Amino acid sequence: MIIGVAVGAALLTGWLNGSASGIRSLTSLLLSVPLTLAISAYWIVPAVIHLLDLHDNQLATLACWTWTEGRATLLNAFWLNTSWGWVHPEYFPYADKFDSLPLSILRFVIPAAAFGALALGKGTDSVAPGGERRMRLVLPLASVALIVVLLSTGTNPPGNVIFDRLYGLPLGWLLREPGRFLMLAALIYGILIAVVLEANVKRRLVDDLIARHMPSISTGRLIALPAIVATVILIGFPVYTGAVVPDSRPLLPPAHIRLPSYWPQMASFVDGLPTKGAVLVMPPDDFYQMPYSWGYYGNEGFIPELFRRRVLIPNEQAYISTSQQLIGAVNLTAQAFLRHDWHQAESLVRTLDAPLVLLRRDLDTQSHARVISVASPADISSALHVAPNFILVRQIGQLELYMLSSPLSETEYANEFVTVNTLTPDLRTLSFFPVGTALVSASPIQGIASAIQAPPLELWPQIGNELVWQPETRSGRTYRLAQLDASKLTALDHRGRYTEGLSGAQAVYEPSNQSAVTVSVPARTAIVNGDFSQGLWDPVGNCNAAPAQLPPHLNAQVVPAGAPNRLPALELSAERDSACESQLLSWRGGSMVISLKVQHVRGAPPRLCMWEIGANRCAAMPDLPSRLGWSSFQAAISPDQGTTSVRLYLYADGNYPNTDTINRYADVHVVEVPSVPEFMLIADAPSSEAASQQLAILHESAHPAWTASGGTHVLVDGLLNGWLLPAGPTKFSAEYKYDVWVRGAQLVSAIACIALLATMVLQRLAMALRRRLE
What we know:
By secondary structure, this protein is α+β, with helices and mostly antiparallel strands. About 30% of the residues lie in helices and about 25% in strands. The protein has a ten-stranded mixed sheet with strand order 8-31-34-33-10-9-11-30-14-15, with no helix packed on it. Strands 19, 21, 22, 24, 27 and 29 form a six-stranded antiparallel sheet that branches. Helix 2 (about 20-55) packs antiparallel against helix 17 (about 740-774) and helix 5 packs across helix 8 (about 180-205). The protein is globular.
């Protein structure tokens, strides 16, 4: 936007003052841009590398941020306020004042005055001295302001006609939350209002208007400027009264805070330690805004800014999706501390390359702002105090720093590693291997143990009354079945059936078969007429009935052969409210697995709810796919405590802009299972087989830009860079291929700054010398 404003200003100069002025402005801009780019190269180059490396699947979905456009209407955009938080008094305690007179009217005076500059082109003013030149300024600026106002409505009409197309372009995600671009409209408003005031002073427009209609008043010209100034002062009262940073607000603590001295003291101490590696902040956050006992509630960006060392404090609420593998590893570490599972805890901090653990005891877990669902800092502290492999290094104020007693290395050779069949291995598997064992995403290797991670239970095929998993096995290996959710390991050391410790599941081991291991879970059908072959479950219901003057226009029908494989399909449609079909499931207290086919035709995306009667909420599960065409959906749930029965709802939500909603559902299956176990099959290599390869690990985030002197690049623990090398002595080194670009950019910025300062000093010295000579 800054570049656009700079180029636009140069072009506008040429538009107003002729081509010669425009060429001079563009020439000055072209001379200054290289210098600006050189000075800024230290951050531009890393930013460009980061942007070019982003892929669509790394970005948070539209649904993660479109809720911020709840107030993004054209009316609000004109007075430069589309902020979603405006209706929440804890963020804007003064907002209600703008809904009452006189501010409810005055808030529109500024845009009216700005766009009122367009009226200067009418009548005598357009031919007055400077009038034509003024209009050459007003027309392009007003057009740009209008376009920005229109785009600021984002995915809402009417701006969605343009915004949606722009968003689909490469790097279009940079337009997210377009209300922030209203700052450009605010700048243009200021220029347009200045034009109006200038015209008023020069032409006495208000004087003429008042003299024409109220001859007894002749001081109109003196009224316009004070009126505009008074309006700005009244509308801007939150700034000069301090209300914009309130000391009292609902739910949240005062906005004025003072960072306790123990935070910078701890950061200075940590940065001074000789220990290499990152700092892991505990307990893990449950939201991007957290409450503290010293009166702060908000984003925790201040923590990594205090440290020079890398800080691990991930959260899931971001424009760029945080690695679920990283979030899972951090959460597992906290759970390992609480369970006193020091073996797993050490394995995880080694994987994270975070030998330092910073425990925050100043989190306000009893905050009134919201329900806080984090592990107890006091419980983690008590656990770490008795840990055999973590030591308390320093306590400053409400912060405690612990350190892993054994050293870590940025680059290491792993003597123990296991191949695994997925890029996102469950790190709970590390508990079943010696500390320091790595999980390598690769095909099985001679002489190396391998692990086969079972897919989620909802993806297991149903055979008869069972859900079945049959992993591919290899002859000559011995097998162990790990139940990750129960931390149990069963050795399959003889032919037969195993049920002990498998949470209702059973395993069958037949070494002579091609699939030597079969794991199954009993499954009981819990739904009737899931294929709609017998028609609707019930007459269509209205699951969002709201008082209205218009009928909701809800409909439900079964379309014969309307789904894949010529299966019947339930079609739900709604213009307003929500059309729904529901069925009370046959539930006996176990977990449930649901699968169905869904087609989004138009309007609001499809939706389902497994309503927990008693707990009175929908069971947590992923959203249904909303792409056009038929898709498959599977999910497993374990109803919450207090649930007495479960009812399944399928929806078509109305009230969608400019169209009705139509969604189709088919082939609905719901089965009840004893639990939702998670398995990993471990295949141990014969002791007679020598390992054919070894592993080098670089404790940096996995990325293809890392290159090594040899070996095959692999993913380690779903997080790190690794290279498989031939067994035996070997030379190894790794480097980041963009490192030379980043360091070069830093050098260019330093040279540019020095050159600029030197030029300024020399100019001042030359001016001083000329004055002396004169």
